[in-house]
Amino acid sequence: MGKESKLAGYGELSEVKSKIIILAVKEYRHIIRDPRTLGIIFMLPIVMILLYGYAINLDVRNIPVAVVDYDRSPLSRMMVEKMVSSGYFSVTGQPQNISKARELIYSGRAFGTVVIPQGFMSDATKTQGTCVQLLLDGSDANTATIASNYFNLFVLGLENDLSTAAPFSVQVRILYNPDLESVKFIVPGLAAILMMLICALMTSATIAREKETGTMELVLTTPIKPHQMLIGKVLPYIIIAFLECLLIVGFAHLWFGVPVAGSLSVLMVMTLGYVFCALSIGITISAAVRTQQVAVSLAMVSTLMPSVMLSGFIFPVASMPWILRMISKAMPATYYLKIIRGIMLKGVGWSYLWPNFAVLVCIGAFFILIGMKKFSTRLT
């Protein structure tokens, strides 16, 4: 009896093992038959390491500045040359006066302006010394703080190299955000990230959900055309995205004191271009995959994380390697951040921001055409 019970126990154990092995083999075959999910699983860590390794860089380099040189002396020219050779600054222009230099900052073509006063060279040899003025765009509080520190260290090093009789002094003036409050820099950028999350992420799952649950066939039995279905699917997310934008702007203004210096109507019109772009990306992803899991994962990897890391939301794009700078130009959030921060903090109008709006519309049109083509192909 003892031997028989042991043999029976071994038989049951062997049967359990065989069932587990059969289920494991079945699941393995299911995994390898879905190469897109498998690719995301193994590619996501590599993408994350590359993004975090290169994009998270608190060192700011190639800060675009304009130079207003009233002195036009050998010393002022040498100062500009050393400033560029340091690698921390790049000269984007040399306007004739401060008003034109401020226009460059206002339009976003320069982040700051170095003003060299007349008599700079002669005053450097006197006991009272000389003063250099630095104007910075405070709408990016982090970069403005770092740029101010860099310039002070640069002037100190220049003073030591020249062994002047009196020290150089730097007068820093912050525009648009004099107190360098980081909340005024972060909160407007959250609108871009949250709207991308709502539009691209949710839209990417909605059509894939219809395919996965099998309700797509029921919808197709109705006399509805593909483009009508797409419009009906994305329309609620357009409304949600606009409400989200109004909520963020209103809460940022009333609670955190973030100003709305520009036109709210212009902001809403340009937000429409950004929403259109984000929805187009979501539609393309949803039309290209079959399951919600793949759609959501692909949307996270291709839109949300790059929007946070590569758009200039936190880390300056100019400090990234050139390949990431090229990728950032394909990120819709890169252009919308310029729009919302420009309108809210600087009061920039349509005449300066319309190129960013045009790029958003072009990116959106590109993806919507691809998405509709893939969707129509799947229906046939």
Structure description:
There is one protein chain. The protein is an alpha/beta fold and 380 residues long. The protein has two domains: 63-175, abc type-2 transporter like domain (abc type-2 transporter like fold); 183-379, no CATH class. It is built from 14 helices and five strands. A five-stranded mixed β-sheet has the order 2-1-3-4-5, sandwiched between helices. Strand 1, helix 3 and strand 2 (89-93) form a beta-alpha-beta unit. The longest helix has 31 residues, at 2-32. The relative contact order is 0.11. The mean pLDDT is 78.
Helix and strand composition category:
alpha/beta
Q: What ranges have pLDDT less than 50 throughout 5 or more consecutive residues?
A: none
Average pLDDT taken over every residue: 78
Main β-sheet description: 5 strands, mixed
| Radius of gyration from CA coordinates | 28 Å
Helix content estimate: 55-70%
Count of DSSP strands: 5
The strand order across the widest sheet is 2-1-3-4-5
Q: DSSP strand (E) fraction? A: 5-15%
Shape: elongated
Q: How many domain regions?
A: 2
